[in-house]
Amino acid sequence: MRIAVHGASGFTGSLIVAELVRRDITPVLVGRDAARLRRVAHKSGLPDAEIRVAALDDIEALAAAFADCDAVINAAGPFTFWGEPVVRAAIAARRPYLDTTGEPAYLHKILTTYDQAAKDAGIAVLPAVQDDGVPGDLIAALAAARLDAPIAEIVVADLRRPGAASRGTARSMAAIAVLDQIEYRDGDWRPAADSASTLTEPGETEPVTVTPLALPGVYTVPRHVDSPVVRGVIRTEVGELFAGLSGEVAETIPEIPDPAVLAASRWFVLAEATGVDGRRARGWVTGFDPYGSTAVIAVEAARRLVTDGAPAGTLTPAQVFDPAGFLAALTDHGITWQVETLAAV
């Protein structure tokens, strides 16, 4: 199996390359700088890895770089600025595509704009394959499945505390910080109510204040769960940090986070479903080191796309993978999950 990694010289891309090598999957390193790509190959213990240089403005060269690979993982953000040429190149090469974006407007654009092109090419296009996009989508599907009555609302919450962030993440968050927050309501994506609320994290006694954020689940969950409302929220303190980001501030953040801080950074994604009868169910997925977890999730998703296949078109994780089966595969990597039924409201 050969997996092309576009943006392999970046922080997340280099972790994906290392994870592919660890799992005896052949990486093909694609980017704009051959010297940087070679350094990643050496660091990953595969000095003879194949290096392919292609610019974003040369779709033909990008497509040629992907043509003999089994799938493409794009890890080069901000995706809002740099993502679409890679999608177009993967479609031109007829290679299954996934990326690690967390940028909501870009995610929505890919899902809605490239569906027919992906179907015509006979490939799956799967954006937001990272530490909140996949867990949030899959655990929301499992929570909703616990209820017998029709769904009234689904809330997807990213409850991680402030922690390590790479320069690439900061750039992406700065790119979306100026956008209005969105929720899914009554068949369309609309501005979210700009108000704080509280939510209790499983295992904790005190509720935390959360504010709206258009997490990937706001765009992915409505594609497979029939719910009139899907909202995304994060801890208010984290939202305030995001709101303070600018392009200038992002450039002052180290490209690679402090390893000790990174290893201790815990991420926690929760989904709560409420039925029209007031019954509730919730599920959560949690782990440490969000970037290492993203690498594991992206490689597992790419492996399954190649070995198991997928329908053609733009898809969400729960439309491609068995939610419980995929999450179970992550437990060997320190990622845990649970689903439970709650008392009715």
UniProtKB/TrEMBL annotation:
Q: Where is the Saccharopine dehydrogenase NADP binding domain?
A: 4-125
Q: Name one Pfam family in it.
A: Sacchrp_dh_NADP
Gene3D superfamilies recorded for this chain? NAD(P)-binding Rossmann-like Domain (3.40.50.720)
Entry's transmembrane regions: none
Q: Which SUPFAM superfamilies match?
A: NAD(P)-binding Rossmann-fold domains
Domain of life according to the entry: Bacteria
PANTHER family found in the cross-reference section? SACCHAROPINE DEHYDROGENASE
What is the designated name of this protein?
A: NAD(P)H-binding protein
